Amino acid sequence: MNLSTIKVCIFDVNGVLIDSNRANARAMARSFTDDPATLHLIEELYLELTGIDRGSKIRIIQERVMRRPFEGGEFEMRWERFKRLSRESMARAPLIPGCTEVLARLGELEKIRVALSNTPLAELRETLAARRLDPLLDIIRGGGDWPKSESLVRLLTEFGFEADRCLFMGDGKGDLAAAEHAGVPFVAVDGGTGEFEGRQGFHGPFRNLADWGREVLGMASGP
Fold it and tell me: How far apart are CA 18 and CA 199, in angstroms?
C-alpha cells in the first residue's frame, strides 16, 4: 500500500482504536435485561451488527430478541441506559495495539487523522479525551440514529475531501459497506473474528494497527 497519495486517514473507534466491542456488547445487553440467557443472546447479536448505528442496533435487538414492539418511551430509555453503561465500559477498555504509535506517526507524515464513530459526538469526545487520544486526532465525528455510510459522506462533503485520497480503517462489514458507498479505499482490521471472510475490495485484513503500521509505515515491532 502506497500512502503517498493519501491525505486523510479515517479510523473507526470501537475495535480499531479501542478494544471495546465485547464490553459494549455487554453494555447493550444490560440496557435491555438482567436475565443471563437473554444477556448472552443480545451480546452475540450485537457483535454481528458491525458498522451499524446505535438506533438501528436497539431496534434490531428489540425485534429479534425481545420480540415485541417498544412501549411508550422505551426506545429512549434503552438509548440513555446504553449511553451510561457504554461510557463506563469504554473508559475501562484497553487501546488496540499500535493505536497511539500509528496515530503519532501519521501526524509526523502530515496526514489528517479522523475518528469517525457511530457513538454520539459528546460521548465520543469524552471517551477519546479520557484515553488521551484527542491530541492525536485532527477531526472527531460521532454518529447517532443514522448509518455509518451517511456519516462518511457527510465528512467528505463537509471538508471537501476527495474519496480516493482518503483511507478508512474499520473492523466490520458495515464499515466496508460505508467505504464502498463513498468510494473510499478500505483497510480491514480483524482481531480474529473472521469478519471479512469471503469479502473482497479492501487492504488486509490486519490483526490490529500495530500490524498495519509495521507493514505500511515500516514501524518497528514491539517488545
Answer: 24
Q: What angle do CA 159, 101, 50 make, to 5 degrees?
A: 60
The Cα 152–Cα 130 span in angstroms is 24
User: Are 165 and 142 spatial neighbours (Cβ–Cβ below 8 Å)?
Assistant: no
Kindly state the cell numbers that stand for 25: 456488547
The three cell numbers of residue 151 are 456519516
Residue 156, C-alpha cell as written in the block: 467528505
pTM, two decimal places: 0.83
Q: Which three cell numbers stand for residue 73?
A: 418511551
Q: Determine if the peptide bond prior to 205 is cis (ω within 30°).
A: yes
Helix (H, G, I), strand (E, B) or coil at 188: strand
Express each pLDDT in 33-87 by its tens digit: 999 999 999 999 998 887 778 889 999 999 999 999 999 999 999 999 998 898 8
